[in-house]
Amino acid sequence: MTDKDLQVGVSGRFNRRGFLKAAAAGAAVFAAGTSSCNAALQEAEKKPEPCDADSVVTNISTALAVPKKEISMPGPFPGLVARASHSGVTRGQKPNHGDPHAATAMLAAAMKELTGEKDPRDAWARFFQPGDRVGIKVNPTGGKLLSNTHELNRAVINSLVEVGVASSNIVLWDREEDLLHDAECIPKNYPDIRCSAMCYIAEENGGRVIKGMDRIDKSVYYEFDIEQEYDEYYTPYMIHTGTRSYFAKLVTEELDKIINVPVLKNSGPMVTLCLKNLSYGSTSNCRRGHQIMNRFIAEVCAFPPLRDKVVLNIVDGLRGCYEGGPAANAQYMWEANSIWTATDPVTADSVCWDLIAKKRIEKGIATPEQIEEGRQKYDFLVRAENLSLGMFKGGEIELREVDLG
Amino acid sequence: MINIVFAVLFAVSAGTADEAIFSLLPPDGVPEGWQRSEDPRLFPGEALFRHINGGAELYLQYGFDRLALADYVRGDFEARVEIYKMNDAGAAAGIFAENSKGVEKSDKFGDACTLDQYQIIFHRGCYYVSVTCYEPSEELQAAMEALASAVDEAVNKESM
I need a surface site. Which of A37, A229, B40, B81 has the fewest CB within 10 A? Predict the structure, then answer.
């Protein structure tokens, strides 16, 4: 047994390391063709097959038993996405130094297209009222290079304030404080609102400790019968182990409404957009969710704290990436100069996945056949549609586009 | 008793490993006028998820040991150096191959590298290295190349 084996144990229905090794071996042989890669392949061949996710028992029935509300996903505009583009928004400048006026104009245009309102304030007022406590769920995984842009974040905040939402009632949040810090989603850049994370660093007894237990709601959880132990370095960031993933108190108690703002990016052969940003960003002990990833993404979003509070999705596509995501790999990034708005997260994911897929084919990263294989394998959008969270491309999707120059 | 001894040995060896990878990071003044903006950070094992979230899966699949990261500044200019120590040269080559699919390669740094206006990546031995800046400019390009060169030299020296 190696040190690694001592640090990373797995219990539950199948062996995670076997699954990962198997996945790695194929890629490794393709990539390097070294003897160590061949050894990995040989080892992988001895490992058991990954589990059948559909055989895993979850508590999704408890979520489905709660009646939906009028504003629940997919909201008032199922199957509809509005895209606004402006070729000058990034200005060829460093990330977060784009044109804030262009970002504001794009957001206003996309909101008008989505709602059919003539005045953007009326569009925002359809979703938000004074007194609402509103969370903006960002995706800071790509650091400064490929996270939410400050110019769009500020446009969202300003739009909320314009319809009477108090800035003290607005929270910019993610699961981990470290990542927010790396993406500079910090009080220095957002002095009027709160920046918050479920997992945070606190000063205690003269030292820095990782905390989070006080920010999870133990009465609301997604449960499935797979446990995963994490190594000593990562366990505190998952907050706990076991068969439950608790929702953040922020989403269960502290917020009335959520604006979901993912970044236009791939995650391997799939995408990390609206649904993934919500599911993995709102729950503790979530990494084990990769073992049943398609179900985890769809089913976590079907729980009331997300299903009934996420009233708007805005995909930040000022810059996007088609390969190398979710981390930032500059050689695969492009200035997409676009944002998408939707109340239906499934439709937004479907439309943006199409764009990323097109780019992957165009750049020779994947063939159309490989794209289709990826869609079959990562079927969380189909599952989300089956849970009535929105419309996948099989439905009648409408994309409204406005080009601002 | 065995457990205690093991724990102490592990702590000592981990400390040495940390120091070893930190020593590969360019010091203040490389390139001239640049300095670290804060203490370098270490991400051992699964702690890599704290840095790149789900992107860490790929590195762990190949065999990842630890990451040392430092941010550098000169005035308003910023750059970041990330040194990923993989378990062996095959793993480093594999990660490089994954992160440079379809991109023109060069032999300017390491065993192979790619050069982008925002990022230089290369691999040498069991190390995969990324140097990133946040805006395209000639001065930053030169700074990135100086940082990449310094890391490459340090890694090369270590492997001799």
Answer: B40
The residues, ordered by sequence, that sit 6+ positions from B34 with a Cβ below 8 Å of its Cβ are: B28, B72, B73, B74, B77, B79, B143, B147
Rounded CA-CA distance A281/A229 in Å is 19
Q: Which of A32, A50, A68 is the last residue of a domain?
A: A50
| Domains held by chain A: number | 2
Where do we find the tokens 């780019």?
A359
Distance in angstroms (rounded) separating the CA atoms of residues A110 and A86: 11
Q: Which residue has the tokens 């797979």?
A: A226
Residues A237 and A352 in one domain: yes
Domain with A25, as residue range(s), is 1-50
**Which range, of A57-66, A164-173, A324-333, averages the lowest pLDDT?**
A324-333
**Does B129 contact A at CB distance below 8 Å?**
no
Question: Distance between CA atoms of A311 and A260, rounded to whole angstroms?
Answer: 8
pLDDT recorded at residue B158: 86
What's the mean per-residue pLDDT of chain A?
Answer: 87
Same domain, A231 and A348: yes
pLDDT tens for A324-375 read 999 899 999 999 999 999 999 999 999 999 999 999 999 999 999 999 999 9
3-state secondary structure of A33: coil
The domain total for chain B is 1
Interface of B with A in 22-51 (CB under 8 A): 43-47, 49-51
Q: State pLDDT tens for residues B1-28.
A: 333 333 333 344 456 878 899 999 999 9
Beta carbon pairs, A and B, within 8 Å: 131
CA pair distance A252, A325, nearest whole angstrom: 29
Domain that holds residue B8: 2-159
Q: How far apart are CA A247 and CA A252, in angstroms?
A: 7
